From TrEMBL:
Record protein name field: SGNH hydrolase-type esterase domain-containing protein
SGNH hydrolase-type esterase domain residues: 20-225
Lineage: Eukaryota, Fungi, Dikarya, Ascomycota, Pezizomycotina
PANTHER family per record: ISOAMYL ACETATE-HYDROLYZING ESTERASE 1 (PTHR14209), ISOAMYL ACETATE-HYDROLYZING ESTERASE 1 HOMOLOG (PTHR14209:SF19)
Bilayer-spanning residue ranges: none
A Pfam family matched in the record: Lipase_GDSL_2
Amino acid sequence: MSATDAQAKDVNRSYDQIILFGDSITEMSWDQGLGFGYGAALSDAYRRKLDVVNRGFGGYTTAHAIKIVHEIVPSPDVAKVRLMTVFFGANDACVPSHVQHVPLEIYKENLQNIIQHPATRAQNPRLVIITPPPVDEYQLEGFDKSKDTVYPSRTAQRAKEYAEAAKEVGASLKIPVADIWTAFMAAVGWQEGQALIGSRDTPMNSKFGSLFTDGLHLTAAGYRLVYDEVRKTIRAHYPDQDSDALPMLFPAWGEAPR
């Protein structure tokens, strides 16, 4: 191949992708106002190596996601998807009376169908399931703190159940899981068997509360835990796709053709 041909090929070269597919927690993970977001941090880590694509949709559940996955994952002739995270459950886990609620078994079925969808299979990406995070009931709308009346849309216990369900799907399909629910709880010293931090059955925990803006969505500290857990999962299961292992698509300026 001549130098001219090589340069022409470089001009048309496109970056392979990492798709972050999820709800508002994914959508908001580029919010510069927070100071740190896991999506923006991944994009920075993979700069000049892979394109990190935000496909987060506020309010969406797995019931929504399964209907649009074919439009989210590009066909292989358009782009190559190397990695894909699937990060749903925070809305599915709403209480049964809430419009966003998706029953636990349907949630698991939907997760499996997203992963096994023909559009996903066509790309055959390295997949990572991200568990829904815990919630802080003390911050959630639906708690009348002045009257100590509880009518929440979400509970700490239900968040735990949906996180466990996400792990079950990962285990059954042999898909790695970034267990951010456990990472959040471990960060505040919770241990299995104890009453759930974040539940109104336990005292308010200010360190736990600092991970959330509103009991559900995340602060910079919360997003950093997500980022660390996702990076750890990629390194453990797909070490060849960790950003530190990948070359830049185009050479550094000192090595670039002139």
